[in-house]
Amino acid sequence: MTVLSQAEWYDLTRQTTWTPKYVSEDELFPEEMSGGRGISLEDWATYDEPYKVVYSDYVNTQREKDSGAYSVKAALERANFVKDSDQGWVSVLKAHYGAIALAEYAASTGEARMARFSKAPGNRNMATFGMMDEVRHGQIQLFFPHEHTSKDRQWDWAHKAYHTNEWGAIAARHFFDDMMMTRDAISVAIMLTFAFENGFTNMQFLGLAADAAEAGDHTFASLISSIQTDEARHAQQGGPALKILLEHGKKDEAQRMVDIAFWRSWRLFSVLTGPIMDYYTPLEGREQSFKEFMQEWIIGQFERQMLDLGLDKPWYWDEFLRALDETHHGMQLGVWYWRPTVWWNPSAGVTPDERDWLEEKYPGWNDTWGKCWDVIIDNFANGKPELTGPATLPMICNMSNIPIIGTPGNKWVVKDYPHEHEGRLYHFGTEPDRWIFQQDPERYKGHMNFIDRFLAGQIQPADLMGGLQYMGLAPGEIGDDAHNYEWMAAYQKAAAE
Ligand SMILES: [Fe+2]
Ligand SMILES: [Fe+2]
After folding, report:
1. Cα–Cα distances in Å, from 408 out to 193, 361, 392, 405?
2. Using the 8-state DSSP alphabet, how is residue 152 labeled?
3. Using CA atoms, how far apart are residues 440 and 438, in angstroms rounded to an integer?
4. pLDDT band at residue 300, thresholds of 50, 70 and 90?
5. What is the distance in A from the centroid of ligand 2 to the CA of 110?
6. Does the N terminus or the C terminus of the chain have fewer Cβ atoms within 10 A?
């Protein structure tokens, strides 16, 4: 039997579609699931994904990727890197797995939405592979941390985090529910794959892989680079969808989706990736600063992609560039200060050497954020450690669910962006967060952030212990300083002298 060459059958398979006869097009592709936006099936059939793959090649490649990552893990298991590595790095791993593993698993539902409901055959084809990718990412990122769960309960949060009401888990869940679980197929293609995956996951996966390799953690480096090769493929589903929207005069809507998803992604990264790159990763293992990674991956690459497609830079671009110098420093200070409320042990990352590095990468750091750390250090030196932990709760943004912060010191700029809707007063950390709410109040108005729940009496007893219990943080899981406050010794010695 003669076998056709791939070139002869490939386009037929990737574009397989049909004309519905027994049901209407709307029954086959309900608008709220498909998001066809009045564009005809013929026009959606012109969707042309840049990265093409067939099932037999896909499974072969995936098998190789999995066996590569799993064999690096097996080979290095006895070396037990985690046991001997810097505790700041251990915290990077715990924070990453808890924030990412189950979101990956959930992402397979977002991919499934496109695989079933997208009106573009090429999108459905790509998303079928994307769905399998995300199942793999969920599984592998639960399997790798699992070996450590017998030693330390915080590792269990790789699986547990998304099942709790821990504040960071609420923030991440609100974000992913908005981008990938509750929108039509075309919105998922644009908001999840174009803005978030294509725009941001390179940062988390390649940036962090570079840091991991520098820090000597080859198991984690090979795991997350293996994941990113899948992301790089299925993240390309958004571009061709955007192209079709633009060709049909829907630029405003396309731009709005990108602007919303980009800002929401940035806010999540400012609390997760920023601190772990600039404060948790051991100094000698830092490949670049968070800001330098952002400039390379986001500003260099994503900005160009937007413009090439015919989109504009988001309206808040100047504010975004400014925030690169600020937001994650505030998040770091807040997460370290409220350290009992997270499932990992935050690293302070402010030894004298580290401060020199921060000042070099972020001129003015000592004069602003450094001043707050000075107060913490003084309180320790003066025998008042109780003043270095939380007695109250921070204000939390009603969109990003992360603290509302500003730059301390002489340039103090902390600002709330309030908005009243149907008699309820909402608080936002930035103008774009408020703007996102205003685009679709019906979608967002019912959500209660951690502070709203506290004020509504849902958290009892209404104190730190009640809060920790509500967040699911049991003894042995509650965060504390990654280095057991040893970094304070240099300052105490200096003070004694
Ligand atoms: Fe993924
Ligand atoms: Fe993905």
Report:
1. 36, 18, 18, 9
2. -
3. 5
4. confident
5. 9
6. N
What is the C-alpha to C-alpha distance for residues 451 and 401, in angstroms, rounded to an integer?
9
Q: Which of 441, 349, 433 is nearest to 395 (CA)?
A: 433
Are 337 and 388 in contact by the 8 Å Cβ rule? The answer is yes
Question: What is the number of the ligand closest to the CA of 138?
Answer: 1
Closest ligand to Cα 232:
2
CA gap 141, 157 in Å, rounded: 12
Is 250 within 8 Å of 153 (Cβ atoms)? no
If phi > 0 it is left, if psi is from -120 to 50 it is alpha, else beta; for residue 395 that is beta
Instruction: Please give the model's pTM, rounded to 2 decimal places.
Output: 0.96
CB 149 within 8 A of CB 217: no
CA of 107 to the centre of ligand 1 (A): 7
Banded pLDDT at 52 (limits 50, 70, 90): confident
Burial 155-189 (b: 16+ CB within 10 A, else e): bbbbbbbbebebbbbbbbbbbbebbbeebbbbbbb
How close is the Cα of 232 to the center of ligand 2, in Å? 8
Tell me how far the alpha carbon of residue 189 lies from the centroid of ligand 1, in angstroms.
14
Q: How far is CA 175 from CA 104, 148, 399, 446, in A?
A: 13, 28, 9, 15
369 CA from centroid of ligand 1 (Å): 34
Centre of ligand 1 from the C-alpha of residue 52, in Å: 18
Tell me which residue of 384, 263, 243 sits closest to 316, measured CA to CA. 263
Question: Token digits for 341?
Answer: 């409320």
Cβ neighbours of 378 (radius 10 Å): 14
139: left (phi over 0), alpha (psi -120 to 50) or beta: alpha
Q: Are 167 and 262 in contact (CB under 8 A)?
A: no
CA–CA separation, 290 and 349 (whole Å):
14
Tokens found for residue 43: 């026009």
Task: Please report which residue ranges of 25-166 form alpha helices under DSSP H.
Answer: 25-28, 31-34, 41-44, 55-77, 81-84, 87-117, 121-146, 157-160
Task: Give tens-digit pLDDT for 395-406.
Answer: 999 999 999 998
Amino acid sitting at position 351: T
Distance 130 CA to ligand 2 centre (A): 7
Could you tell me the pLDDT band of residue 235, with boundaries at 50, 70 and 90?
very high
Judged by its nearest atom, the ligand closest to the C-alpha of residue 226 is 1
pLDDT at residue 204 is higher than 80: no
Identity of residue 238: G
Instruction: Give the rounded distance of the alpha carbon of 48 from its chain centre.
Output: 28
> Which residue stretches of 295-400 are H helix?
303-309, 317-323, 327-337, 352-361, 369-381
CA-derived radius of gyration, the chain: 23
